[in-house]
Design brief:
single chain, alpha/beta, eight-stranded mixed beta sheet, 12 helices, about 55% helix, binds guanosine-5'-diphosphate, GTPase activity
Length: about 300
């Protein structure tokens, strides 16, 4: 299916290198493990996550005599799935639900909000959008296009108004209309980081204060094609705003799918959604099992 296709480049990147490794080192010795370590790091899995994986692989080689390339790949697959599963938390299924979506401009935030809104609508949920990026007029217009495409209402104010006020209005509209899922867009300008983070924290406070009975998700959108840069963004948003999960976009057409592992194991943030194309249907809930099955 589509996830498999999206991860083909990532898979090819990893598997070809592991096969090459076996032609150089037919037995699993220290040289083999050292080079495998380099391969995993090179595939955007991250240094820390790679070390965790290699340690576990060493144990299993000792315990159960893993020898052939197929056995190594099978063992890696199990290790990665188990590690991801220990870190995994799905998106909240308690309603009413408020999802605050954060992320840097250009990563696919608007598109992800449109797809997510549509996904909930298809599941029979009543959805409302809040145009919280009042900094760019184009952001509101773009979100409005998606809201029309998905057939979903949107709360907006004029350009330059206080984003927290938009969210405040949206919360009261959501309550009055018995909305199940309120999805809040936010600004993603990075030229003044401190100012942006303060704005996001203020929005978060408004949601907490005005809608205590709702369950809440702060979802960070990052772009898989940017690899280590995406990881740095995740660290920044985690430390300054706090996030519950990640929507990883543009998994189609990148060989850097390994960052799912880095994000989960190094930053302890679960990837909850993956974007696998530009269409309204191209968003999936992440599953560790489907991910490793597509990867190996
Ligand atoms: P924003 O500035 O973060 O709101 O970014 P947009 O939502 O406008 O998206 C930027 C570009 O990325 C657009 O051309 C989208 O079509 C594209 N895009 C977003 N998500 C995906 C995805 O999962 N796969 C692909 N291939 N393109 C995507």
């Amino acid at each position: 299916e589509k996830l498999k296709d999206s991860l083909l480049k990532t898979k090819k990147n990893i598997i070809e290198k592991i096969e090459g490794l076996f032609s150089l080192h037919p037995t699993i010795n220290d040289d083999f493990l050292e080079e495998l370590e380099e391969i995993l790091i090179y595939c955007d899995i991250g240094v820390n996550a790679t070390l965790q994986i290699i340690e576990k692989l060493k144990d299993r080689v000792k315990e159960s005599g893993v020898k052939t390339p197929d056995e190594v790949v099978e063992t890696l697959k199990t290790i990665i799935r188990e590690l991801l599963e220990t870190k995994y938390r799905g998106i909240s299924k308690d309603y009413p639900l408020v999802i605050m979506v954060v992320g840097v401009n250009g990563v696919g935030k608007t598109t992800t909000i449109g797809k997510l809104a549509y996904k909930y609508k298809k599941e029979g949920k009543k959805v409302l959008l809040a145009a919280g990026d009042t900094f760019r007029a184009a952001a509101v217009d773009q979100l409005e296009i998606w809201s029309q495409r998905a057939g979903i209402n949107m709360i907006k104010h004029s350009e330059g108004s206080d984003p927290a006020a938009v969210i405040y209005d949206a919360i009261y509209a959501a309550k009055a209309r018995n909305v199940d899922v309120l999805i809040c867009d936010t600004a993603g300008r990075l030229h003044n980081k401190k100012n942006l983070m303060e704005e996001l924290k203020k929005i978060k406070r408004v949601i907490m204060r005005e809608f205590p009975e709702a369950s809440k998700e702060t979802l960070l959108v990052i772009d898989a094609t940017t690899g280590q840069n995406a990881l740095a963004q995740a660290r920044l948003f985690k430390d300054s705003v706090g996030i519950d999960g990640i929507a990883l976009t543009k998994l189609d057409g990148t060989a850097k799918g390994g960052i799912i592992i880095a994000v989960a194991l190094e930053l302890d943030i679960p990837v909850k959604l993956v974007g696998i194309g530009e269409n309204i249907d191209d968003l999936q809930e992440f599953s560790p099992e489907d991910f490793v099955n597509a990867l190996f």
